[in-house]
Design a protein that fits this description.
Number of domains: 1
GO molecular function: transferase activity
CATH class: Alpha Beta
Distance between the termini: 38 Å
Helix content: 40-55%
Shape: globular
Pfam families: Sulfotransfer_3
Radius of gyration: 18 Å
Largest sheet: 5 strands, parallel
Number of helices: 14
Order of helices and strands: EHEHHHEHEHHHHEHHHHHEE
Protein name: Sulfotransferase family protein
CATH superfamily: P-loop containing nucleotide triphosphate hydrolases
Strand content: 5-15%
Number of strands: 7
Strand order of the largest sheet: 2-3-1-4-5
Keywords: Transferase
CATH topology: Rossmann fold
Length: 298
């Protein structure tokens, strides 16, 4: 089967792009197999490098999963609503459900793996014949989005420092982390530094540019990956990215797809103060300046 990996820093649009591409005919969709909470049985380390010998068991399971063999675990989170908990008890969660749907397809010619936990394994996926799509989103937007959900990254960054995964700039910042946004901004920097170093023939997609012209951007990705299209997929894409729904919902769900996508960047960054934007840019700006200025696109 034709293989595609959609990855990127969490909160960068990987779920949206992966699910839209997978809405086409004859496409199997695999949801976060490297997520230690709900992925492959051997996945126990966040952001593992599958090329590392210590990850050999996970790499072997991933190779089986490409052929829709093996299994994915389910998981119930404390923030899940009662309805979501009931659904997960019935179908074990999104990963197992998507795997079951993939196996039920009468014809399977393509497989799309959506996984932000694959950022350190880009070279490994390319070596397995995957076309890699890396989503990038403004670091301030990622910080604001993670803050909305109460997600923090300071502890993760300190663990990465202990494992020798940070460069000198990141090590300097680890010793200065004094706010929730610091850890997320540093996490963003590390992710895209690693992605730029590992990305070979893959494609990097700027979230905000895709949001401004979603149909054209998805069409370009379809052409790059060889994934087919359909009128149904186009109708779904237009339904999710247009209309009167607000671009940002501070009290909303983890994923909020049905919204006026062109407004996402401004509405998200507006939740941060000028001092916070300056702090984020001081940490991540040397990488982010390839695509952004402190308060928007270049």
């Amino acid at each position: 089967m034709n293989r595609v990996l959609v990855t990127g820093c969490p909160r960068s649009g990987t779920t949206f792009v992966g699910s839209v591409l997978a809405s086409a005919p004859r496409v199997a969709y695999l949801h976060e197999p490297l997520n230690p909470d709900c992925g492959l049985p051997s996945a126990s380390h966040r952001f593992a490098d599958l090329a590392d010998p210590s990850s050999a068991a996970v790499a072997d399971e991933m190779l089986e999963l490409f052929e829709l063999r093996g299994r994915l675990r389910g998981n119930v989170y404390p923030t899940d609503t009662a309805i979501v908990r009931l659904g997960k008890r019935l179908v074990a969660g999104r990963g197992p459900l998507q795997l079951a749907k993939a196996r039920a397809l009468p014809r399977r010619e393509h497989v799309v793996v959506k996984d932000p936990f694959a950022m350190r394994s880009i070279e490994w996926f390319e070596a397995q014949g995957c076309t890699v799509i890396v989503m990038v989103r403004h670091p301030a937007a990622v910080v604001a989005s993670m803050r909305r959900l109460g997600w923090k990254a300071g502890t993760t960054m300190r663990r990465f420092a202990a494992e020798g995964l940070l460069d000198d700039v990141e090590l300097d910042w680890v010793d200065q982390l004094d706010a929730d946004l610091d850890g997320v901004a540093l996490f963003w920097r590390m992710n895209y530094r690693a992605a730029l170093a590992g990305l070979g023939d893959g494609r990097l997609v700027v979230h905000e540019l895709m949001s401004a012209r979603p149909s054209e951007a998805i069409a370009e990705l379809r052409a790059a990956t060889g994934i087919p299209w359909s009128d149904r997929s186009e109708r779904r894409l237009r339904r999710l990215t247009s209309g009167d729904v607000a671009a940002a919902d501070p009290a909303g769900r983890t994923q909020q797809f049905r919204r006026a996508s062109a407004d996402i960047l401004g509405s998200t960054i507006s939740t941060l103060t000028a001092d916070e934007l300056d702090r984020i840019w001081a940490i991540a700006g040397d990488i982010a300046s390839r695509w952004y200025r402190p308060d928007g696109l270049t």
